[in-house]
């Protein structure tokens, strides 16, 4: 464990005509580590910071300062980067960016995958969760019940479902003081492209509204967490995560022109940001009580504020005389936050804890084609000096924002090692192909039922589709289902794909799917089907096709999917 201050950066966005007049000398950067702000009354305030990004900074120059955090994450340290600032100051631009000018989140995912590719001594699984805090309630942005939102440009939309229509998630605190969002979805991704597709859909459901200061103003705090789970051939594992948070902007309602509903949101935003400041003050003054629990935002950010994560705060500033007071407030917060010291720790690499007899191989209906290659996989496992024993990881439905706990193994009824991880890593993890020697339990066909009302597959059973894209999907690559299965099996055995129907990323995903529970597979399948339909409705048949292909992977042996 080592003491480390939160790094605090400032980024000034370029001036826009709508900002009104700007006295450029009201804000100056004598060095890239110091910023001077002149108040309305002419007083000069100097703030030393870790780094100042001027109006001409680029997304890539800002990201250079985030990259070292990713190296720490791959060493097992948790990290948090968050953007703070007045509404319209560029937080979402910095954190998310646009397709043509991507921000920290897409760059971090790309950089993580690039780094992971170099790590050939281990199997690494990357997953993510994405929640928003709106009026002090937590919602899962990946939850399909949020609706598909608007998959176009989120900045100009407010078409997502109302907060009241969505499922609120509970925050829980475990015995070690780690805060957990219960029942949050954590999704494994096998490529930056897959992440981008899922992220764009989820981000489009975030609450956004137009105010006088920002046409696409975020009404919620959005917290994206990337989880990294690494497993070595000796069975040892290490987990870590990085939280990338885009806070809602503090608002001066004299300037925003908010209506009653916007005012309610604004008041919740300002209250949570005020609690954030109080927490920082309490940490800096060694107060006996730090009011993390006073709002959900500070509970979730607890690990980044006086906790064990490496922290980076980017304070965004809007140029314009009308923002002078906000600029001084933001810089005062920045300067206080820079004094917060975290006890940064590295999550231990945990050895495989329990040795159990190999479970009896159960017949699988999940991937019938893969059964044929079971013996060859066992042979390859043995030739690699590995026990042909499966160490499946228990699926988790909740994520811990606090420091990661250690894994402790337990053996389930079928003799499968199921480490219970008091941590955040995904519901689905892989142990690598050579170790995969048993098949998962059979899958129940997903049908129209009370629990699963959204996707009716009965038309598929009758051999006809009510949706044209279903037909296109099933005829993928001109293969029958059996041919596709055989091809898939060959890809898995060879750990490569050649013909372009299933790429190596899909092969990895197949390994992951095997370890999912029936419920998880069903849920992912339904989610992909919904996405497919949403793309179809939006006229994007390429994306729709990909979504339906993804859906199929979760139940490749479902006979009801035979259309011909
Ligand atoms: N560095 C930048 N370069 C170019 N344009 C920027 C930059 N920062 C912000 N902008 C533009 O300024 C506008 C407001 O930015 P953004 O929506 O990111 O603000 P915000 O701080 O997230 O606001 P809110 O808190 O209201 O959501 C957007 O149109 C955005 O594209």
TrEMBL record:
**Residues annotated to bind ATP:** 85-92
Q: Which InterPro entries match?
A: Kinesin-like_fam, Kinesin_motor_dom, Kinesin_motor_dom_sf, P-loop_NTPase, TPR_rpt
Q: Is the Hydrolase keyword given for this protein? A: yes
Where do the TPR repeat units fall?
A: 525-558
Transmembrane feature ranges:
none
Ranges annotated as biased composition (Basic and acidic residues): 163-175, 448-457
* GO BP terms: microtubule-based movement; mitotic spindle organization; spindle elongation
Q: Which residues form the Kinesin motor domain?
A: 5-340
One of its Pfam families is Kinesin
Q: Name one GO cellular component term.
A: microtubule associated complex
Start and end residues of each stretch annotated as Disordered: 144-180, 344-367, 437-457
Q: Taxonomically, which superkingdom?
A: Eukaryota
Gene3D superfamilies on file: Kinesin motor domain (3.40.850.10)
Q: Name one GO molecular function term.
A: microtubule motor activity
Q: Which CDD domains match?
A: KISc (cd00106)
Q: Does the keyword Hydrolase apply?
A: yes
In this chain, composition skew of type Low complexity spans: 145-160, 353-366
**Which keywords has UniProt assigned to this entry?**
ATP-binding, Hydrolase, Motor protein, Nucleotide-binding, TPR repeat
Q: Which family does it belong to?
A: Belongs to the TRAFAC class myosin-kinesin ATPase superfamily. Kinesin family.
Question: How is this protein named in the record?
Answer: p-loop containing nucleoside triphosphate hydrolase protein
From what organism does this protein derive? Kockovaella imperatae
């Amino acid at each position: 464990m080592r003491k480390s201050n939160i790094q605090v950066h400032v980024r000034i966005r370029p001036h826009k005509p709508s900002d009104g007049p700007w006295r450029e000398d009201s804000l100056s950067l004598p060095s890239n580590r110091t910023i001077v702000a002149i108040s309305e009354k002419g007083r000069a305030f100097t703030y030393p910071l870790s780094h100042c990004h001027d109006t001409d900074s680029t997304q890539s120059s800002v990201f250079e300062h985030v990259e070292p955090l990713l190296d720490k994450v791959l060493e097992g340290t948790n990290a948090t980067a968050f953007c703070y600032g007045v509404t319209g100051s560029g937080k979402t631009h910095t954190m998310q960016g646009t397709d043509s000018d991507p921000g920290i989140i897409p760059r971090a995912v790309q950089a993580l995958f690039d780094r992971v590719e170099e790590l050939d001594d281990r199997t690494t699984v990357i997953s993510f969760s994405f929640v928003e805090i709106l009026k002090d309630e937590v919602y899962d942005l990946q939850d399909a019940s949020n609706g598909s939102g608007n998959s176009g440009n989120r900045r100009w939309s407010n078409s997502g479902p109302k907060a009241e229509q969505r499922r609120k998630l509970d925050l829980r605190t475990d015995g070690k003081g780690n805060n957990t969002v219960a029942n949050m979805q954590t999704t494994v991704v096998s490529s930056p492209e897959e992440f981008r597709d899922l992220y764009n859909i989820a981000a489009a459901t975030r609450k956004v509204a137009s105010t006088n200061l920002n046409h696409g103003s975020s009404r919620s705090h959005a917290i994206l967490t990337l989880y990294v789970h690494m497993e070595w051939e000796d069975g040892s594992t290490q987990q870590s995560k990085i939280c990338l948070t885009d806070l809602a902007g503090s608002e001066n309602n004299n300037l925003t022109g908010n209506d009653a509903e916007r005012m309610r949101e604004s008041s919740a935003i300002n209250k949570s940001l005020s609690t954030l400041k109080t927490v920082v003050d309490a940490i800096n003054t060694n107060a006996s009580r730090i009011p993390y629990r006073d709002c959900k935002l500070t509970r979730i950010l607890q690990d980044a504020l006086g906790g064990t994560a490496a922290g980076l705060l980017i304070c965004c500033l809007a140029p314009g005389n009308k923002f002078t007071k906000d600029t001084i407030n933001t810089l005062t917060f920045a300067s206080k936050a820079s004094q917060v010291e975290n006890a940064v720790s590295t999550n231990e690499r945990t050895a495989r804890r329990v040795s159990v007899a190999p479970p009896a191989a159960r017949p699988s209906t999940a991937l019938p084609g893969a059964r044929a290659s079971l013996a060859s996989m066992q042979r390859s496992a043995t030739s690699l000096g590995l026990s042909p024993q499966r160490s499946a990881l228990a699926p988790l439905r909740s994520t811990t924002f606090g420091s990661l706990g250690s894994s402790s193994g337990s053996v389930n009824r079928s003799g499968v090692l199921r480490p219970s991880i008091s941590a955040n890593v995904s519901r689905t993890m892989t142990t690598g192909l050579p170790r995969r020697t048993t098949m998962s339990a059979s899958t129940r066909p997903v049908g129209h039922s009370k629990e699963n009302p959204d996707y009716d597959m009965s038309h598929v059973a009758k051999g006809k589709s009510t949706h044209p894209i279903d037909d296109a999907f099933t005829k993928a690559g001109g293969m029958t289902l059996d041919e596709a299965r055989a091809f898939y099996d060959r890809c898995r055995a060879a750990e490569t794909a050649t013909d372009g129907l299933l790429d190596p990323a899909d092969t990895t995903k197949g390994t992951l799917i095997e370890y999912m529970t029936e419920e998880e597979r069903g849920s992912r399948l339904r989610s992909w089907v919904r996405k497919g339909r949403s793309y179809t409705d939006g006229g994007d048949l390429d994306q729709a096709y990909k979504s339906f292909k993804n859906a199929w992977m979760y139940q490749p042996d479902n006979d009801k999917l035979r259309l011909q």
